[in-house]
Design a protein that fits this description.
inorganic pyrophosphatase (n-terminal core); DNA replication origin binding; cell cycle; single-stranded DNA binding; Cell division control protein 45; chromatin binding
Length: 769
């Protein structure tokens, strides 16, 4: 269940009780822990802190520390699993879950109060209780209580309803769980709590700032969401400095991790956001880097020495110089808005630098994980002066970034980024020095995103590294991860493991990360490739006759394969009508069915209108009007496709100055269908997209032997659909004296005599030139 009041329903409940605090090994969780520790210290709340790395460690930590514990707080762990089922707690034990990993397990959502979720993310589309839970005992009692023919018929009907309900439930649950993603950072929620209890200091703001920077640096959240998180933090800044004289500011900074501790050249070579675009794995890469430095006006000698030893004027102008030079070298933006900690008598500290330092401590090559966790907490301290934990973490992060760069450069230069149908994959070779560093999900994830960006950034990537002599880690990065980081690999990995029988461990909290035996890796990758590919035989038969598993994986498979073929996103968020005993109905399907009825080839328009009203009925079962409209729409779409293909293949998309135009030929079968504004508009937009999508399009089709329809589609209509053609058509008609009818409600659609069409198009061309 979700709590209503974070102060009264969560924090005040903990006061005066001993708490078990279970914290996941990730940057956001450690920042959240830092804030909670400060609150607990202020209010004398006794607690036991145990860091956990996965579900098995979570279970072990609970079993070893649950004596005389009534309240358990889980940070970034436990939200995506059925806690009561896995931990088997006593009835009086209450779990408070603060987890940024999504989607939340529905058993936790609909818990009777033993599991209490501290925050509800607005992005979660949680299914309704009645759609996914059913009382089986009541159904069995009803079956036992009825006898005779009527009872038998009722039992058969109930079983049919049960099957339909189960099918609908499976669809809902698949849609809900098919993507893993991240919600608002847990540290931001903890800061909100600190604000509510009047304990919000700069230390808490700094910890939450580092958590927000982590989700941006690791591409856990879309850029727009990152900005909203930053704005939320900005509203919770204390009015005065803390006792150490430190305060947090939101400023523009160079997007180079740890550049204040490195040389500028080394920072550019090892920046996950910029280095892939420099293509340093090629011979020309280092020449491109030197040219970039020359364009910024920074001498090579200065760029190769420690940043703090650089000329002061060069350091001051670095941000502006990089922003100016980046477009010439086709680099992504070299700057970003981030949080900086300003301290008395100490250098400025960037939140992103602390993110990488904490990553270096969590996945340190030699430090035990528990010791690295304690160092990570210390790295968040805001006191002035050198921080030993932060220094240790920064050194480890710099070594890890160098290892990541070597792994990716070796992979790309040796062409070891293998193409496996809908995704690409690479393997960190066993026995190499880099394999000892890049063997955890954080640094292997950095390497995977680096390789994806260097390869164009549009394909899904699977990366694997050895953990020991017998086991390997494997993770997936979605296509276009910078813009849409929802990850499809969690569900795909689970299905592939079931399909091939591999001994896959799904122990990680992030479902897109798994472990499996080294000997079974090739077999698993083959199964994953087969899962995300669709056989031609299946693709050519009716969708409802396709294999059930292929239908379930269709959305994931299309999203994975689309970038390879440079397709726009093949999925969208839409409305679905779920009905008893009937297939799911998509709103877009009804849209096209109604279009088919309104502009039907043979039906009178008034009759088509009545059918269109009937097509909106929501009753279960087949709808005759919807069936009629769907058939007409399918025929119309086929006609539109033939019109556009014929136009483009015969080069009949004519260039007329500022726009292009095409004409549906009189006397063709298609002309009888594509003669109304709806289907002609579809054809015009189709032709515009096929021609690049940047030019305005005018399309015309004959209505009868003497009159034609003519309409205009604006340039870049997908992004800016405001139409310029209404006023232009009226002016062109006045200019040439054509007998144009402006009868349509949409002013970008007109009719005119066939004999005057050429004259009108000439006038329109002259007007817009």
């Amino acid at each position: 269940m979700f709590i209503e009041d974070i102060k009264n329903d969560f924090y005040n409940v903990l006061l005066g009780n001993r708490v078990l605090l279970l914290v996941h090994y990730d940057v956001d969780a450690i920042c959240t822990c830092k804030i909670l520790q400060s609150l607990f210290k202020s209010d004398n709340v006794s607690y036991t802190l145990v860091p956990v790395g996965g579900i098995a460690e979570l279970k072990q930590a609970y079993e070893e520390n649950n004596e005389e514990i009534k309240y358990v707080v889980l940070v970034n762990c436990g939200g995506t699993i059925d806690l009561v089922d896995i931990l088997q707690p006593e009835e009086e034990v209450v779990f408070f879950v603060l987890d940024a990993h999504k989607p939340t397990d529905v058993c936790n959502v609909y818990s009777d109060g033993q599991v209490r979720l501290v925050y509800k993310d607005s992005e979660e589309n949680i299914p309704n209780f009645d759609d996914i839970f059913k009382d089986e005992e009541e159904d069995e009692e009803n079956e036992e209580s009825e006898s005779g023919r009527e009872g038998l018929e009722a039992m058969v009907e109930r079983r049919r309803e049960r099957r339909a309900w189960e099918e609908r439930r499976n669809t809902l649950m698949f849609n809900y769980t098919q993507f893993s993603y991240y919600g608002k950072p847990s540290a931001c929620i903890a800061l909100e709590l600190a604000w509510r209890v009047s304990r919000c200091g700069w230390g808490g703001v700094w910890a939450a700032s580092v958590a927000a920077a982590a989700q941006a640096a690791l591409c856990c959240r879309a850029p727009a969401q990152v900005l909203l998180d930053a704005h939320h933090l900005h509203t919770h800044t204390p009015p005065e400095h803390d006792r150490t004289g430190g305060h947090v500011t939101l400023e523009k900074d160079v997007c180079l991790p740890l550049y204040r501790r490195w040389s500028l050249e080394a920072a550019l070579c090892h920046a996950p956001a910029l280095a892939p675009a420099l293509r340093l794995h090629t011979r020309a890469g280092h020449a491109r880097l030197r040219q970039l430095l020359a364009d910024t006006g920074i001498p090579l000698q200065q760029a190769r020495q420690a940043y703090r030893s650089m000329d002061v004027e060069l350091r001051r102008s670095l941000l502006t110089a990089l922003e100016t030079a980046a477009p010439k070298h086709k680099l992504p933006s070299p700057t970003h808005t981030t949080f900086l900690l300003q301290r008395v008598h100490s250098p400025t500290l960037a939140a992103m630098d602390v993110v990488f330092a904490i990553m270096g401590l969590i996945e340190h090559e030699t430090l035990p994980k528990a010791e690295g966790f304690q160092h990570a907490l210390s790295a968040l301290d805001t006191q002035s002066g050198e921080n030993e934990s932060r220094r240790l973490g920064s050194a480890a992060a710099m070594a890890a970034l160098q290892a990541v760069a070597r792994v990716v450069h070796a992979t790309l230069s040796a062409r070891l980024l293998h193409l496996a149908g809908p995704f690409s994959y690479f393997i960190v070779q066993e026995g190499t020095p880099e394999a000892r560093i890049v063997r955890g999900p954080l640094w292997l994830g950095v390497a995977a995103r680096w390789a994806a960006a260097a390869a164009g950034g549009t394909r899904a990537i699977v990366a694997s590294a050895p953990i020991d002599d017998t086991t390997c880690l494997l993770l997936g990065v979605p296509p276009r991860y910078q813009h849409e980081p929802r990850n499809l690999f969690g569900a795909a990995f689970e299905q592939a493991a079931t399909k091939c029988g591999a001994s896959v461990s799904l122990d990680y909290v992030d479902t897109s990360v798994i472990t499996l035996p080294l000997a079974q890796r090739a077999q698993f990758l083959d199964a994953l490739t087969a899962l995300l590919a669709i056989p031609l035989q299946q693709a050519r038969q009716a969708y409802r006759s396709m294999d059930v598993e292929l239908r379930r994986s269709l959305l994931t498979a299309l999203e994975t394969a689309a970038p390879k073929h440079k397709l726009p996103s093949p999925t969208h968020t839409t409305f679905l009508l779920q009905r008893v005993h009937s297939p799911t109905l998509a709103a877009m399907d009804v849209v096209f069915a109604i279009m088919g009825l309104i502009e039907h080839e043979t039906l009178p328009k008034a009759e088509g209108f009545q059918h269109a009203l009937s097509a909106l009925d929501t009753q279960s079962g087949e709808n005759e009007s919807r069936r009629l409209g769907s058939a007409a729409a399918m025929a119309a779409l086929q006609a539109v496709a033939r019109v556009v293909h014929a136009t483009l293949s015969a080069r009949l998309l004519h260039l007329a100055g500022p726009f292009s135009y095409f004409i549906v030929q009189e006397g063709t079968p298609e002309a009888r269908i594509v003669r109304g504004p709806l289907w002609l508009g579809v054809a015009a937009r189709w032709a515009a997209a096929a021609a690049g999508g940047t030019r305005a399009i005018v399309a015309s089709a004959p209505i009868d032997d003497t009159t034609c329809l003519l309409l205009g589609v604006p340039p870049r209509y997908q992004h800016e659909p405001r139409n310029l053609f209404g006023a232009a058509f009226e002016q062109a008609a006045t200019k040439c004296g054509a007998s144009v009818s402006l009868d349509y409600v949409d002013t970008s659609v007109i009719t005119l005599p066939l004999a005057q069409r050429a004259q009108f198009l000439d006038a329109l061309t002259a007007l817009l030139a």
